[in-house]
Write a structure and sequence with these properties.
- It is a single chain.
- This protein is an alpha/beta fold.
- It has two domains: 247 residues, FAD/NAD(P)-binding domain, CATH 3.50.50; 90 residues, D-Amino Acid Oxidase, Chain A, domain 2 (2-Layer Sandwich).
- The protein has a seven-stranded mixed β-sheet with strand order 5-4-13-14-15-12-16, sandwiched between helices. Strands 7-2-1-11-18-17 form a six-stranded mixed β-sheet. It has a three-stranded antiparallel β-sheet with strand order 8-9-10.
- Helix 1 packs parallel to helix 10.
- It is globular and about 60 Å long.
Length: 395
């Protein structure tokens, strides 16, 4: 039985822990914070749902998701690229499940197959290990772990990535900031992302009747204000319904604001020694394709497949890099491109963009949806360890 240590108890780290446990690994997760319910909403796309199927949680996520029509609108409310749930299922084989982030974390950290998680543990890699020696991880209180595999899911400012690749340039500010909130229901039944002057706003109903709203706009870094809801109303309160109503209903204390940093330059590899980089530590991206957590979930199941039961970890990690680096780097590029498109400020350029999207969606839908098929069409590596599930519910 191999010993694995996961640094970071977020979505990617917990998914990796469950996937490794399913293959017989002894796994411990080291998390510096509590596993408290944090964050707002999360879109789990078909590619990530298939990955979650391999750890037996895909249907649990589908069962907690709101299902409905949606698409892209202009800031005045015009539909540019309307979609419906049947069209999404027909094109991509599954739905897009919008759930509170806390619910997904709860599923990953609880029930059967859940890993042991040590909270309030600030851990760092002290030896990446090699073919003939284990890796070592220490915590700031003096504890030490030796491991056949270390999974570094320690985020965009990953100290592990810096340890493995000290010359990597690290994260770059994207030029934009995001806001996220969940509020009580306002009669919203349709999911939509609206693009307007210099920004975008998404409004998505949740299965429990609440509403998830996110927004993105150009801003200087660290430009936080005392009342972020007031800032949202200033920027987006004149956009189409129901955006103003959702913002007015929100609790100002519930608004989360985060500057958007990403890794436009990938690290040379997603591994070194006996260490695997995973999620934002490997490929932090802008949120414009909704793929940050989804790619981390993909990483987790591919990593578990690559290292198997632990008999040949170095070779498995090389296979992990070969499988993941080209794909995730492509998603990073596409997401940044969509972000630039969604935040066009010039009115004439914005009109050309909107009319082009609307015309393409109506007359040549494959040109619009083709890039999404490249992202959503991914499937996990197939082997005998996959958890079974039924076909997507089409009722």
């Amino acid at each position: 039985m191999g010993k694995a240590v996961v640094i970071g108890g977020g979505i990617g780290g917990l998914t990796a822990a469950r996937a490794l446990l399913a293959r017989g690994w002894d796994v411990e997760v080291l998390e510096r914070n509590d596993l408290a319910p944090v964050g707002a909403g999360l879109a789990v796309a078909p590619n990530a749902l298939r990955a979650l199927d391999t750890v037996g949680l895909g249907d649990a996520v589908r069962g907690r998701a709101a299902v409905g029509s949606g698409g892209i609108r202009s800031w005045r409310g015009r539909w540019l690229a309307p979609t419906n749930v049947d069209e999404v299922r027909e094109r991509f084989g599954d739905t897009i499940a919008v759930v509170p982030r806390a619910e997904l974390l709860g599923l990953l950290s609880g029930g059967s197959g859940a890993p042991v998680v040590h909270t309030h543990t600030h851990a760092a890699l002290t030896d990446a290990g090699g073919p003939d020696r284990p890796a070592r991880v220490t915590s700031d209180d003096g504890r030490e772990w030796t491991a056949d595999l270390v999974v570094a899911a320690d985020g965009i400012r990953s100290a592990t990535r810096t340890e493995l690749f000290p010359d990597h340039p690290g994260a770059v500010y994207s030029g934009a900031t995001t806001w996220r909130l969940i509020t009580d229901g306002t009669g919203v039944s349709v999911s939509a992302e609206s693009w307007g002057p210099g920004g975008s706003v998404g409004v998505m109903p949740l299965a429990d009747g609440r509403v998830y709203l996110y927004a993105m706009s150009r801003a200087l870094p660290d430009a936080h204000v005392p009342d972020e809801r007031a800032e949202l109303l200033r920027r987006f309160g004149h956009w189409h319904d129901p955006i103003p109503a959702v913002l007015r209903r929100a609790d100002p204390r519930a608004v989360l604001r985060n500057d958007v940093w990403h890794l436009p330059t990938p690290p040379p590899a997603y591994h070194g020694g006996r260490v695997a980089l995973l999620g934002d530590a490997a490929h932090a991206m802008t949120p414009n394709l909704g793929q940050g957590a989804c790619q981390a979930i993909e990483d987790a199941v591919v990593l578990a497949h690559a290292v198997g039961g632990g008999s040949a970890v170095p070779a498995g990690l090389a296979a992990y890099t070969s499988a993941r680096l080209p794909r995730a780097s492509g998603v990073v590029r596409r997401s940044a491109g969509v972000g630039r498109m969604s935040m066009i400020g010039n009115p004439m350029a914005r009109a050309l963009r909107d009319n082009g999207i609307a015309l393409t969606t109506r007359l040549l839908p494959r040109l619009f949806f083709g890039p999404l098929e490249e992202t959503f069409g991914w499937r996990p590596p197939a082997d005998g360890n996959r958890s079974a599930r039924s076909s997507p519910d089409r009722s």
